[in-house]
Specification:
By secondary structure, the protein is an alpha/beta fold. The chain has a domain of about 200 residues: 3-Layer(aba) Sandwich (Rossmann fold). Helix content is about 35%, strand content about 15%. The chain has ten helices and 14 strands. Strands 3-2-1-4-5-6-11 form a seven-stranded parallel β-sheet, with helices on both faces. Strand 1, helix 1 and strand 2 form a beta-alpha-beta unit. Helix 1 crosses helix 7, helix 4 runs parallel beside helix 5 and helix 6 packs across helix 8. The protein is globular, with a radius of gyration of 19 Å. The structure holds uridine-5'-diphosphate. Uridine-5'-diphosphate binds next to helix 6 and strand 8.
Length: about 325
């Protein structure tokens, strides 16, 4: 087996991490936390959906995931301890219109990244997976043992990468932690990074937009089998999510085995409850209307994240819904 490409022993805390998608929402928040914790970080991003301004130009490498040779060059600059792989398309609705884009960018793109890792001897990766791998779960809160059953192409594009990672571990000794995110939300409490997708598809920023513009937000479906008829999701603050990546990297560099973990709070909120939380935080009424269900949306997704808590000592500390909405509202009203 090729030697592990590693920049630091346990005596040297300055681990060097490659973050793909570091110009995006969760990637930029995690990069900030890695830097705060003393890591060296290089960001690989093609800026197709991320923001140039979110990354220090000195650490940005503009490279496409599908450009294996380009990734090999970046990985060969200096030894790396691990890759944290965020770069992906994330819109469930879009994935049900153009699934080819999702399998190309998310699945083939990840294969290209793993190939570059094997070629350069980098053997640790933390992978951005999703609750969408479960589809319509039979057990709620959802444990990691729930079978793969995605109901949208986005989820399937991630399942395929999780499965590739199992084979890359068996065959190449490439160890991975798959973090299955529930609903990433909120912003850095110091307002250094937050969510701004284009087009925006996520609930909380779209509710804010309705407050700011007066144009009603459309809530997708009021006839789900939930207490108030709207979908229930487990909203996890992006700072808690970022911390999960750091504990995952540490477990891998210390020799931990490949694992898959849910990252959520265990508490779900309905779309209506989120809307009410925004009204409470902003002090303003939210104009809204109901529309049809969105293709590929399961009624309820709530995480059982006890495995991550007990094995890696992670716990959510910023994910109370009011704090999520407050930090996100501050970000939405920041001065550019
Ligand atoms: N949602 C909605 N209107 C919107 C966007 C989202 O009603 O304009 C609902 C969506 O159907 C889901 C929840 O809000 O039940 C969270 O969706 P989001 O797109 O934020 O995250 P996802 O669950 O797709 O990861």
């Amino acid at each position: 087996m090729a030697p592990v490409n590693s920049s630091s022993s346990d005596n040297s805390p300055a681990r060097r991490i490659l973050v793909t998608g570091g110009a995006g929402y969760i990637g930029s928040n995690t990069t900030l936390q890695l830097l705060d914790a003393g890591y060296e970080v290089v960001v690989a991003d093609n800026l197709s959906r991320g923001h140039r301004a979110a990354v220090d130009p000195a650490r940005l490498r503009e490279v496409d995931l599908l450009d294996t040779e380009g990734l090999v060059r970046v990985m060969s600059e200096k030894p790396l301890d691990a890759v944290i792989h965020f770069a992906a398309y994330i819109a469930v609705g879009e994935s049900m219109k153009t699934p080819e884009t999702y399998f190309h960018n998310n699945t083939a793109g990840s294969l290209s990244l793993l190939t570059a890792m094997i070629r350069t001897g980098v053997r640790h990766v933390v992978f951005s997976s999703t609750a969408a791998v479960y589809g319509m779960p039979t057990t709620v809160p959802i444990p990691e043992s729930e079978p793969y059953a995605p109901v949208n192409a986005y989820g399937e594009s991630k399942v395929m990468v999780e499965k590739m990672l199992d084979w890359f571990d068996r065959i190449h000794g490439l160890r991975s932690v798959c973090l299955r995110y529930f609903n990433a939300s909120g912003a850095d409490p110091d307002c250094r990074a937050g969510e701004s997708h284009d087009p925006e598809t996520h609930l909380i920023p779209l509710i804010f937009r309705a407050v700011q513009t007066g144009t009603p937000v459309t809530l997708f479906g009021d006839d789900y089998p939930t207490p108030d008829g709207t979908c229930i999701r487990d909203y996890i603050h992006v700072s808690d999510l970022a911390r999960a990546h750091i504990v995952a990297v540490e477990s891998l560099v210390k020799g931990g085995a490949s694992k898959k973990y849910n990252v959520g709070t265990g508490r779900g909120y309905s779309v209506r409850e989120v809307l009410q939380a925004v009204e409470a935080v902003t002090g303003k009424p939210v104009p809204y209307q109901f529309g049809p269900r969105r293709d590929g949306d399961p009624p309820t997704l709530v995480a059982d994240s006890t495995r991550l808590q007990s094995e890696l000592g992670w716990k959510p500390v910023d994910s109370e819904l009011t704090r999520i909405v407050e930090t996100a509202w501050r970000w939405a009203n920041r001065k550019a």
